[in-house]
Amino acid sequence: MKLYIVATPLGNLQDLSPRALGVFQKVKFLLCEDTRKTRKLFSAYQISAPRLISYHQHSNPQKVKEIIQLLKKGEDLALVSDAGTPGISDPGNKLISLALKEINNLEVVPIPGPCALIAALSVAGFPSDRFLFYGFLPRKKGRKKILQEIKESSWTIVFYESGYRIKKTLEELEEIEMEKDLVVARELTKKFESIYRGSIKEVQPLLKGKNLKGEFTVVINNQ
Ligand code: SAM
């Protein structure tokens, strides 16, 4: 039995790989974070979806047990998240680790594709041989320490941020005098894709007065 970990588009539907489509047509069950979002994806491709099973980071142990039972019965399953690569600041890792513990001959198969952190890093033009990915920064506890760590690091840094918090996060980095160059990548692959580059002082005016809805990935050049 196989558990396919399938990347889906961040926005642009053309980014779904033919291999991913092949897996969707092959498996009977598809684990997804939000069944409505996944159904929309399938209707955009005008293909019928496998049976959808909701699975997210807070799925209860009974749900996880049921999923593992399906695999034990020999079913092949696929896992998707709302967008991008499962397991990258998205559900996946807990299920994979439990399933591997319980099923000896389980094959976990990557079907790679879109991932915001890699997309942002790939256009940043910063060294990428060593980088630190923070996922989402903590909102409260430990935040100051991590911002300081980011400032002092000698590695390229990548983190995820929401449109609601991006200005505030840049302000906080400015307050601690983080003077490195950065890339703020907004809505990659979508209609309002924008890539802002420069020091914090240069990027802040570019964001000023803009409606900053949407999804952001920040890359900092520390090398
Ligand atoms: N697993 C996903 C991946 O592979 O990119 C990331 C999931 S995480 C819950 C969602 C965050 O990723 C967003 O809040 C944003 O910070 C970042 N993100 C997702 N899509 C993005 C996009 N199109 N452009 C920039 N950042 C994006």
The beta-strand count equals 10
* Helix/strand/pairing category: alpha/beta
What is the CA-CA span between the terminal residues?
Answer: 44 Å
Low-confidence stretches: none
Mean pLDDT across the residues is 96
**Level of helix content?**
25-40%
In N-to-C order, the SSE pattern is EHEHEHEHEHEHEHEEHE
Query: Are any ligands bound, and if so which?
Result: S-adenosylmethionine
- Give the count of helical stretches: 8
Largest sheet: 5 strands, parallel
Radius of gyration: 19 Å
Query: What's the CATH H-level superfamily name of the largest domain?
Result: Tetrapyrrole methylase, N-terminal domain
Label the overall shape.
elongated
What would you say the CATH architecture of the largest domain is?
3-Layer(aba) Sandwich
CATH fold descriptor of the largest domain: Cobalt-precorrin-4 Transmethylase, domain 1
